[in-house]
Amino acid sequence: MTTESGLVVVDKAPGMTSHDVVARVRRLAGTRKVGHAGTLDPMATGVLVLGINRATRLLGHLMLTEKGYDATVRLGVATTTDDAEGEVVSTASTAGVTEDAVRAALATFVGDIEQVPTAVSAIKVDGKRAYQRVRDGEQVELKARPVTIHELSVGEVRLGDDHVDVDVSLRCSSGTYVRAIARDTGALLGVGGHLTALRRTAVGEFDLAAAATLDGLSDEFRLVPIAEAARASFPGVDLDDAQAADVRFGRALDLDLDGLTAVFAPDGTFLALYEPKAGTARAAAVFV
């Protein structure tokens, strides 16, 4: 059984739920204290960041970071889930859709936008997951939420009379639904749309180059130590002995911070996350 704390970066295979991955990593790590930072749908592949032991407490903060995706949007077909796993609800001819129109439509999503999440999502509505309400036959209407698309590049556009397939790459804020971008692009063009492929390429500083498949983890368990993970994910401040002692009691520090910051003892031990508040630096989460 491992007693270490840190992050494991998995390249999730298609067909698995995020919970399936957590269950497998629990067995490999020899501990039940495993959680993940941001669900990936079974259809999706790519970067899934998991926390082991004390590092599970980092995950809520990691979920606030930006994420990267590669995706394929199919225009001309709308589904109940806004992706290929749902039932088709409408089709339309795409004979009049041009590449310029597709690129122009997708460009409108770059920046700070209001996005209505897909109805089949984990968002709670009156205490019940939206996807469960949909499965129970209820009509679900979610409110638009602010998200940020930092960058969206359009790759190949494959035109056809029955449908149009578009490859896109994007960087976005946490909470962005790529399925909703597919849906809304189809709506702008008047033909409907859904997602046929999704691969998460990065969560914050952790990308596919840092990821291992579950089979690879079975051969060699790759743990990013919690101190290394904290330095990679947040700005860092090295403290002196007196400041480190204050942190262990959760006391405020006289530090000028710009945002959530990892603080370290003189020997490099990761101590806590601190944030600016009321003119001082206060503990957001203490790890010792």
From TrEMBL:
Protein species of origin: Nocardioides szechwanensis
Top EC category: isomerase
Protein family per UniProt: Belongs to the pseudouridine synthase TruB family. Type 1 subfamily.
Active-site residues from the entry: 41
Catalysed conversion reaction: uridine(55) in tRNA = pseudouridine(55) in tRNA
Domain of life: Bacteria
Entry protein name: tRNA pseudouridine synthase B
Domain Pseudouridine synthase II N-terminal residues, every copy: 26-178
UniProt-listed Pfam families: TruB_C (PF09142), TruB_C_2 (PF16198), TruB_N (PF01509)
PANTHER family on file: PSEUDOURIDYLATE SYNTHASE TRUB1, TRNA-PSEUDOURIDINE SYNTHASE
Biological processes annotated in GO: mRNA pseudouridine synthesis; tRNA pseudouridine synthesis
